[in-house]
Amino acid sequence: MTRALEGVRVLDMTHVQSGPSATQLLAWLGADVVKVEAPGGDITRRQLRDVPGVDSLYFTMLNCNKRSVTLNTKSERGRELLTELIRRSDVMVENFGPGAVERMGFTWERIREINPRIVYASIKGFGEGPYTGFKAYEVVAQAMGGSMATTGFADGPPMATGAQIGDSGTGIHAVAAILAALFQREHTGRGQRVNVAMQHAVLNLCRVKLRDQQRLTHGPLPEYPGDDFSDEVPRSGNASGGGQPGWAVRCAPGGPNDYVYVIVQPVGWPPLAHLIGRPELATDPEWATPEARLPKLAKMFQLIEEWTTTLPKWQVLHQLNAHNIPCGPILSTKEIIEDPSLAANEIVVQVDHPERGTFTTVGNPLKLSDSPTHITPSPLLGQHTEEILIGELGIEEAELPLLKAQGVI
Fold it and tell me: Strand runs (DSSP E) across 191-317, as ranges?
């Protein structure tokens, strides 16, 4: 069975997370992803190591299904070999600092000259403007994209989210743009430049907060906790931020993740009132309608929590689901990594690595019926250098020791 991107060659000149997350998705979809690394390797091979002397989980979990070639692009021969790789590729992806690839001698004009059909994608921290030269990190992108200002509780400081919306979130945006450019190439025969900024991707994920910023001009936002509104969208705690109020309520025995997130729809209020032992609230005019409940959401969830704290979260879930009340458990990372249903759906998978042994990683969330994903381990540093340079670029085998001696590979 063929895979969706079979026959597509991706030249992966990315490092750390935003770029590798994008190219790994392309590899999972069937592209041949060739990761070009400096002879010292991607820095994340050594960062946050849990096993001495082997590639870290940081690296292995972002670089599955790729091939690795080492190349010193500061050397003349290294640049010649990179030119040949560009000539043979459909996509090139990089996430260096602004101007780094250009300083190697590979401007967009030069790349397009080498290969007019190539899709050249760059992931940067910011677009053109006063922030262009800022160094971009995950939480910096969250800070400048609207996420931190709206995350946390109203009486607390701005908070980062554990979801890597700045790095991996931008990588997913980059994949969408790359696939669109490949599709357009089918009609035009030409490649094109693709630019994705981390700040912009985070902002796209925070669009509902810009919605609420505009709604503020017409008065306070009643679905947010608290009554003290300024001219900026406040931090919303665990409020759903949508048309149906929701909150994380505590459960027994009171551990850090003994919570269930509950959403109260109009149709769900009567059965919920019965479950919490207050059936009279189903018909009480002070509680029976969404409009009546909206001014006292804190009290409503307090009443719900008085019931949920008497039961373990899985019993709470069972009873809520029996009445079609939207809810979900707060799953810890330990619960997720041990969840048999996630393993059965191949979204938590085991991968055998030649040096570190078996490790657990996140599988491909994109499920295609005609393009199944088989996840292979991340490559060792330079594992495919000889295979690619000799077998695909056609250099003489006798040149390989010389390239090593000169520090080109």
Answer: 193-197, 246-250, 259-263
Q: 178-219 pLDDT, tens per residue? A: 999 999 999 999 999 999 999 999 999 999 999 999 999 999
| CA atoms within a 13 Å half-sphere pointing along the CA-CB vector of 65 | 26
Quote the tokens at residue 6. Answer: 């079979």
Residue from 257, 263, 266 nearest 245 by CA: 263
- Given the residues 167, 212, 227, 352, select the one marked as catalytic: 167
Q: Which tokens belong to 401? A: 């020791």
pLDDT tens-digit series, residues 31-87? 999 999 999 999 999 999 999 999 999 999 999 999 999 999 999 999 999 999 999
Cα separation of 372 and 290, whole Å? 45
The length of the chain in residues reads: 409
Question: What is the pLDDT, as a whole number, of residue 242?
Answer: 74
Are 64 and 378 spatial neighbours (Cβ–Cβ below 8 Å)? yes
Cα pseudo-dihedral 46, 52, 53, 56, rounded to 10: -40
Of 36, 40, 60, 24, which is closest to residue 355 (Cα–Cα)? 60
Looking at every residue in the chain, the average pLDDT score rounds to 96
Residue 29 and residue 90 in contact, taking contact as beta carbons nearer than 8 Å:
no
Confidence of residue 224 (pLDDT cuts 50, 70, 90): confident
Question: Is the pTM higher than 0.85?
Answer: yes
CA 46 – CA 55 distance, rounded (Å): 6
Q: What is the mean pLDDT of residues 310-322?
A: 98
Selection from 14, 58, 134, 112 nearest residue 359 by Cα? 58
Any idea which residue has 């690839």 for tokens? 101
Please count the other Cβ atoms lying within 10 Å of the Cβ belonging to residue 164. Answer: 18
What does the block give as tokens for 147?
């996420």
pLDDT of 1 > 80? The answer is no
The burial class, CB within 10 Å (0-12 / 13-18 / 19+), for 262 is buried
Measured CA to CA in angstroms, residue 352 lies from 54, 212, 385 at distances of 13, 47, 21
Alpha-helical (H) ranges within 5-75 are: 18-28, 57-60
CA–CA separation, 363 and 374 (whole Å):
9
The Cα 225–Cα 386 span in angstroms is 60
Looking at residue 55, its amino acid is D
167 has catalytic annotation: yes
